[in-house]
Amino acid sequence: MAIDAVTEAEAVARIAALLEAGGVHQICTVNPEFVIEAGRNPEFAAVLARATLCTPDGVGLLLAARYLGQPLRGRVTGVELTRRLAALAAQRGYRIFLLGAAPGVAEAAAQVLAREAPGLLVAGCYAGSPTPRHEPFLQQMIRAARPDILLVAYGHPRQDLWIARNQERLGVPIAIGVGGTFDYLAGTVPRAPRWLRRLGLEWLHRLAHQPQRLPRIIDAVPRFIWHVLKKNRRTGEQRNRRAEEQKSRGTEKQKNVAT
Prior knowledge:
Blueprint: H1 8-21, E1 25-30, H2 32-40, H3 42-50, E2 53-56, H4 59-67, H5 78-92, E3 95-100, H6 105-116, E4 121-126, H7 135-145, E5 149-153, H8 158-170, E6 174-177, H9 181-186, H10 194-198, H11 202-209, H12 214-258
Parallel strand pairs: 1-2, 1-6, 3-4, 3-5, 5-6
Helix pairs in contact: 1-5, 2-3, 2-12
């Protein structure tokens, strides 16, 4: 699974360039749960493969990438990316639409973003639903709002599948699945302290405050670790086989020269 090795600043710069260039682009904030879900959901895997940008959201991804010998350069979370994009939008006059979360949460999150980024143009806020039968209404509402950036908070994989199904009809240049970002911004779900996030234990804080997340935590921690270990073992076996093949070819070459 391809993940872009970008920092927060680089991700924002790339999105800014995409807004200037035109077209429609889907951004995915990938964490270990995404990786596990993509392994068992081909449709979701295809969406991630087609996305213009897949940012590394999750300490687990950074640790796994380093362990596998392909280190990433930083973490790009949905919360911080949203804050940075709000600042960019306020500076350049882009319009943002917040879709998803529980009723009233998107509005509360928008108020926080507007305070942090004075001049931010919020094109609209709506809870809605990711079910297909609601799509015609949502398409009509979002097209009428004419946002440049659409933030969708339905949780993975629903938000990312929803964007993939609807973005072309919406004509929104940038659409991003942001998971629980609205809840964190609105304060309805407390975010882990910074020191706990640095230690890679944000999942433990989430589990303590949201026990219903246990199945997701199992995907994000033990199951993901198991897959990483299996991947490393397969990669090691492949390296050993290649080394043995190269050694064998070298021996054959020596024999031929001697002959």
